[in-house]
Aldo/keto reductase
Amino acid sequence: MEYIELNNGVKMPVEGLGTFLMSPAEAEAASIAALEAGYEHIDTANAYMNERAVGRAIATSGVAREKLFVSTKLWPSVYEAGMAAVDGTLARLGLDYVDMLILHQPVGNYLAAWKTMEEAYRAGKVRALGLSNFEQDKIAEVIEAAEIKPQLVTVECHPYHAQADLRAFLAPYGTVIEAWYPLGHGDKGLQEEPVFQKPARKYGKSAAQVILRWHVQMGASIIPGSKNPVHIADNANIFDFELTDEEMAEIAKLDGTKTYYTATPEALAGYLAMKPDFDSQE
């Protein structure tokens, strides 16, 4: 495993398991498989409704807590709940602290939620703070209001959409980009690109492993999701080779080709209206 040092000195494993769209049973099994394969980072969220399952996997894994990096996300419906939102998340996970706490969507009173997260950070309930799906202007708004600047921003990022402008904006703050959809939302066309097929043959890797390695060399964190133990293990087998400058330059030519997600006003309004009962999860 390789690590990224965040702007507050915390070291984060560069790769983790994402549990988006997994049922509790699936998330528990996938997390156990990931921990057995040597993963040290598991990512969940209030809205995934699988925090308890991830907590169960951690509890039964036998891996010492201090060797794990656990990240979760607060949903907008609890942005104004204060410390109760953080404590509820910790209770569902069965943990005394999380390593990364993230605001999931850029709607609602996210500035109030950020102040709560700063309080949790100072209380030792959280080791690092992040934003998810925030556009640059709203990231700037949070940074302006924040006493503790974000350690991480998680956004759609892949070779078709490398987030060059956002990387440049975040660089002065030392804020890391974390890529969701690191493999292009399962887009087979991405993996079939010659710029990945050629190095895959050269290094004896899959195209997916080459893409994940590209992310790592770009300085990003990655949280690929899979329910297949073989794929989970394969996704972590990316630390024994390195792409050349020439290969990285060829991959860079794909940037600007495609995105998979657009945060429409209607979608954001829908997120704000969603008020799940997080404690009802299995």
